[in-house]
Design a protein that fits this description.
The protein has 198 residues and is mainly alpha-helical. It has one domain. Helix content is 72%, strand content 0%. It is built from eight helices and no strands. It has helices at residues 3-29, 32-36, 41-62, 67-71, 77-82, 87-106, 119-133, 156-197. α1 (3-29) runs antiparallel to α3, α1 (3-29) packs antiparallel against α8 (156-197) and α3 packs parallel to α8 (156-197). The chain is globular, with a radius of gyration of 20 Å.
Length: 198
Amino acid sequence: MDDEDAWSAIAADWLAEAQRFLLAGEVLRQSDEYKRGKLLVTPTLHVVAHGIELFLKAGVIRNGATEIEARKFGHDILALWNDGRNQTTRTDILTAAAEEWQAAAQNPYWKDDFGAFEKAPFEEYLQRLSELHAKESDYALRYTMGCTPETAGPKPHLLSATFYRICDRYLREMTHASQEHAMSDGAACRHRQAARRG
């Protein structure tokens, strides 16, 4: 395994871990209990925030950072989002967010007033989530006792659906590329063996 393959495997591990948390957020968000009231909103935001953090760390690792460098971001989702190594990820996420926004606008379940999707409010959701997930709020998503109404977070719907969708796509692409690489390595090995025999 060469260095590039090793980094791909490490990034895939981080993506797989992110996918677990993002899927948990989606399961919670789509549950009947979630739809009945606000009891699961904070736990849903908590697992979604952790999933987004892991996903964005996978992005910087995939694009050259070491695991140690990725961990130095701590829980700062916004710093990870703005890191130059996540430029392609940002573009993919914003495209998917616009598509999720349009799908929600067509869904009669959502009674919100939907205008055109805008990048700025989406990034404001991320900023607010980052604040609540990090030290500056005393990790408000983890330790909700004593929180005030000003501690309110963004609705998890758009963030959860968007990040899960792109995380899943990236993981599938990496798995597919890894399988193709293994098949081409196998073909090359068989070719070398045939050349030695013949």
